[in-house]
Amino acid sequence: xxxxxSLQVEKDYDYLKMTIPLxxxxxxxxxxxxxxxxxxxxxxxxxxxxxxxxxxxxxTSTIIDISNDEDITRVYLKNGTILKINHSTYMLExxxxxxxxxxxxxxxxxxxxxxxxxxxxGDSTMETFNYHGLFETYFPTVLTDEAQANTLFSTLQYKxxxxxxxxxxxxxxxxxxxxxxxxxxxxxxxxxxxxxxKFDFPWWFHVAPIMHISDNGKVTERIADKKxxxxxxxxxKWTDIFMRNNMECPLIETxxxxxxxxxxxxxxxxxxxxxxxxxxxxENLERDGTEKKAxxxxxxxxxxxxxxxVEI
Length: 312
Fold this sequence. Notes:
Blueprint: E1 11-12, E2 17-21, E3 30-32, E4 35-37, H1 39-55, E5 57-68, E6 73-77, E7 82-85, E8 97-102, E9 109-115, E10 118-121, E11 124-127, E12 131-132, H2 134-137, E13 142-143, H3 146-153, H4 165-180, E14 185-191, H5 193-199, E15 205-215, E16 218-223, H6 235-242, H7 256-259, E17 267-273, H8 279-288, H9 297-308
Parallel strand pairs: 12-17, 13-15
Antiparallel strand pairs: 1-2, 2-9, 3-4, 5-6, 5-8, 6-7, 8-9, 10-11, 14-15, 14-17, 15-16
């Protein structure tokens, strides 16, 4: 079985892509009689990089899997190509789109550039990947700061009773839209069977709204889950409430990335627009392309009845 993983990249915001040299030449100038002998060194260095350029081939594709084999790491691309890289601490993320340069003989990667397509929010940017249907229906509201997010959080209703998480999340997202004209999204955390067995955990998923906040020219996410927190939380602090081993939950693109790997890892997170109600919606989206682009009144009735004992 292939094990999904990731390799780290450094950000280069020129053209909003990330670039990593995976092969570096560690040669210093030679000191001779107090004089740096640079000319010959620079010519040799130029010829070396020129030879790399002439040999390299390029391909742009999405990573669908990464296999950390005993002797090498193999990167599986959507177009069917399998490239290789030496074991290292660099991280590439499954599901993201990259431009690779590689040696045609060995298929070893020499350079990686992540291709990003940002959505503009005034002076802020936000990555659109992994928000199913979000930007086809609306742009999420970007709040001025975390204080504003917590003020809105304080308006959310929570009743101390047994209720379903997806009903609470639906009432909170709907109330923020109806009462404050704030558009949110949702985050889903899925727990693997391995995690459920190890910790005798009672759920296989949980969901809550995401608020989007401007932070030094970028957009950050804060989770609004009033049953388990007294304020909005960063993603990792929110998942740590439920992850008894404090493990990181990888971000997935489709529901089957979780459902087809019930024994792999400990948890996964997935992001959607605010209209998705239950996991079956995510399954339907992937199976037959059924998207949710508006509120369903029957679902809202169920949500308010279960979460708040309110008839709407």
